[in-house]
Amino acid sequence: MTQTISHYINGELDAGSGGRTGAVFNPSTGEEIARLHYGDRATLDRAVSTAAQAGQRWARQSHAARQAVMFKLRELVIANTDRLAEIIGREHGKTILDAKGEIGRGIEAIEFACNEPHVTKGEYATNVGGDIDVFSMRVPVGVVGIISPFNFPIMVPVAMMAMAIAVGNGIVWKPSERVPSAAMEFARLCEEAGLPKGVFNIVHGDKEIVDGMLEHPGIAAISFVGSTPVGEYIYRKGTSHNKRVASFTGGKNHMVVMPDADLEAAASAFVSAGFGSASQRCMAVSLLVPVGQATAERLRELVIPKINALKIGPYNDPAADFGAVISAQSKQTVLRAIDEAVKAGAEMVIDGRDIKVAGHENGYYIGPTLFDHVTTEMELYKQEVFGPVRGIVRAASFDEAIAITNLHEFGNGAVIFTRDGKSAHRFMSEVEAGMIGVNVPVPLPVGYFNFGGLRRSKFGESHMFGPDAARFYTKLKTVSQRWPNPDQQAMPVSLAFDA
Ligand code: NAD
Predict the structure, then answer these.
(1) Catalytic pick from 76, 166, 282, 287?
(2) Same-domain check for residues 222 and 304
(3) Do residues 365 and 377 both lie within one domain?
(4) Bridge partner list, 291
(5) Are 262 and 337 found together in one domain?
(6) Residue 391's domain is classified under what CATH number?
(7) Which of 44, 361, 405, 484 could be 212's S-S partner, Cβ–Cβ 3.0 to 4.6 Å?
(8) Does residue 1 carry a pLDDT above 70?
(9) Within a domain: 446
(10) Ligand 1 centroid to 8 CA: how many Å?
(11) Count of domains in the chain?
(12) Quick check: is 282 catalytic?
């Protein structure tokens, strides 16, 4: 029997009043495994007012009390990693090992959020003039709306939410409708950790709920992660409703390989960072940019056998390197991108279109596909392809490699492989990407650093993870205070400025 997934409001499962439902699939088999209730505005209203009331009470708890819940939550996520990984793999299609990796990065965000008192405490200056002391304080924004993508059902939303909760906000989370179950498990863990009922709420759905969140006067801040067109829309609409919005969007990450690099290491890095999780990562390496003809030829020789050795299989096959893409529709989009690249004249080096996974014939599998001689005019260079299709864009010089990297509209991550410090330094200075790797293929920073892209990979001036998250989820107040001296006469009236 197909399972039904409800909203989670005020600590209770709640079918809502929307009436609409949608199917949730297991991408490894193509089977429908659940029906998801889609919320409506009335359901959202209830979640927002619950989050507002419970959030206010939560914010009044001491820092130590809130920290204790975050520490407990960290322990519970660690203890439940296997269970969470199974839930993620079943709905997403990524391997269990990969799912555990993302949970680990989510735990980092919780660990950093345990430092909430340190990152939110203010500044103080005594006697700035006339016995006045000035100090700053940070208070929670109120209700935070979280809108998350399918590709990291735990890491991404937890990276946004951990600090939002820790500083004392109420939360309304709309998970991706394609991977809703990890959210429900996270809710259970929050409850077990002692987070008071109503602080954390989930409303499932699609654009209808997102629009409701963007327009809702009770929501003060929106954190979004997803594709660029949707993220730009969310940023514009959310800010027009006077909310602070942080929108983290698409990536097309270049990996430049210099002739002096360890080419064997660079080839392995390209294959793992390029094809891991069926390339459904915003930090995946999409394009390999070898500098010079000899580097390109040697790298191509090295990557081909490594790519051909990759095993594709269901999420729970321990031997699989990567699994299915998220949906039948996504598979069609990726296959179309392959056909277009062929038509545009890119050289197909490895063709993954006809892959069959025995016993899983209806799963959404695509084998690893590699194109060489991709040019910056081709759609394969321009578009983010969220599936295992990677390209080689050859550069004649380092100057050209930097130009190719900077020409792209996205600037999430960019990576250089080299043994030369000067090249590395030039790369990090001149390349317009928010996260740079030097001989590190996936430069996803640790949880206590800020995470976020540049150009059209991010809208709004904030970051995930690190200290910026604490600033984003709090409002700053600056207080000037003077205490009357009981022995003194009343203050003289003066209309001069700054008296
Ligand atoms: P998506 O944009 O389709 O969906 C993201 C969220 O927005 C989902 O919750 C979805 O329900 C909602 N949504 C979808 N269409 C909408 C619409 N028209 N109006 C309002 N809301 C809408 O993204 P996805 O396919 O779930 O995720 C993949 C994308 O996310 C990729 O582009 C990837 O690069 C990006 N991503 C970026 C980062 C980052 O940190 N920059 C991290 C992970 C994923």
Answers:
(1) 282
(2) no
(3) yes
(4) 395
(5) yes
(6) 3.40.309.10
(7) 44
(8) no
(9) no
(10) 21
(11) 2
(12) yes
Bridge partners for 381 per DSSP:
none
> Would you say residue 264 lies in a domain?
yes
Residue 496: what pLDDT? 83
Residues 296, 192, single domain; the answer is: no
- Residue 279, ligand 1, Cβ within 6 A: no
pLDDT exceeds 70 at position 498: no
pLDDT tens, 15-25? Answer: 988 889 999 99
ipTM of the complex in this document: 0.99
Over range 206-229, report the average pLDDT. Answer: 98
The answer, yes or no, to whether any atom of ligand 1 lies below 6 A from the CB of 462, is no
Q: Enter the pTM of the model.
A: 0.96
pLDDT of residue 18: 80
Q: Half-sphere exposure (CA, 13 Å, Cβ side) for 161?
A: 29
The 10s digit of each residue's pLDDT in 73-122 is 999 999 999 999 999 999 999 999 999 999 999 999 999 999 999 999 99
Q: Which atom of ligand 1 is nearest to the CA of 453?
A: 41
Q: Pick the atom of ligand 1 nearest to 231's CA.
A: 2
Residues spanned by the domain of 422: 253-407+413-438
Claim to verify: residue 351 and residue 260 sit in the same structural domain: yes
Four-residue CA torsion sign, 7, 8, 13, 18: negative
Q: What is the DSSP string of 58-110?
A: HHHS-HHHHHHHHHHHHHHHHHTHHHHHHHHHHHH---HHHHHHHHHHHHHHH
pLDDT recorded at residue 2: 79
| Strands (E) located in 231-271 | 244-248, 253-257
